[in-house]
Amino acid sequence: MSATLAVLLSALAMTLIVGVRYLAVSGGFAWATGRRHPGLYAGLDRQVRREIGWSLASAAIYGAPAGILAWGWRTHGWTRVYTDLHAWPLWWWPVSVLLCLAAHDSWFYWTHRWMHRPKPFRVAHAVHHASRPPTAWAAMSFHPWEALTGAVVIPLLVLVIPLHWTALAAVLTIMTIMGVTNHMGWEMLPRRIVDGPAGRWLISATHHQRHHSDYRCNYGLYFRVWDRLCGTDRGLGSFEPTRPRSG
């Protein structure tokens, strides 16, 4: 098999993986939404179809560079991903995950703020904000130009940060679950977490929904650190049924 064909097949395989992961996770949380809050997405069928269409296009944009790097890792060792758990000290595993999340969060915060400038918003980011309100299907509903800004992050990080493959899997899992749950229109975390010490620093659905209603605040992805440092944190807001149950 030629190298070109191998790269193309790897990119296609990764695109399918990203697409299936999106359909499975978003579909699962959409189903959970229907069980927990019947009728929450009533009347949004057209919006949901649009979200799925943009998201599957984003899956191809995310999958292509990931597939190319996966091929390069297997054949040429391009990335810093390692398979021997003891190649690095065990304490490095959680540190590497936190480093990746912090770097991704920083990139997202600043590109997201830039996307809210008038021209980038009109050209690209308006696609994401066309979901009013966002649903569990909206996490990857991006214009291709915006999807490109997200697609480069993890490939760049694995070229720089040594990561055990399970640490990379953990980063991708956190990225996927938080992306979906923070858009699904209700808060699955209990009030004691959202309103407690953890909630003051971590993004929740309650925090991110404020961004979708207010636009010029709460730009973070995982953490509220940059929002707090830059004066763009507007707190949690209040809306139903996003406010969590007590407990």
Indicate the mean pLDDT: 94
**Structural domains: how many:** 1
N→C terminal distance: 58 Å
In DSSP terms (H or I, runs of 4 or more residues), the helix count works out at: 10
Strands of the biggest beta sheet: in what spatial order? 1-2
Shape, please? globular
Estimated helix fraction? 55-70%
Rg on CA atoms, Å: 18 Å
Note the beta-strand portion: under 5%
Extract low-pLDDT stretches: 243-247
DSSP summary, beta strand count: 2
Give a structural overview:
The protein has one domain (3-230). Helices cover 63% and strands 2% of the residues. The chain has 10 helices and 2 strands; from the N terminus they run ααβααααβαααα. It has a two-stranded parallel ribbon with strand order 1-2. Helix 1 (3-36) crosses helix 7 (165-181), helix 2 packs parallel to helix 5 and helix 3 runs parallel beside helix 7 (165-181). The longest helix has 34 residues, at 3-36. The chain starts with a helix and ends in a 17-residue tail after the last helix.
Helices and strands, with pairings:
Elements lengths: L2 H34 L8 H32 L4 E2 L9 H24 L2 H12 L14 H8 L1 H8 L2 E2 H17 L9 H4 L10 H10 L10 H6 L17
Parallel strand pairs: 1-2
Helix pairs in contact: 1-2, 1-7, 2-5, 3-7
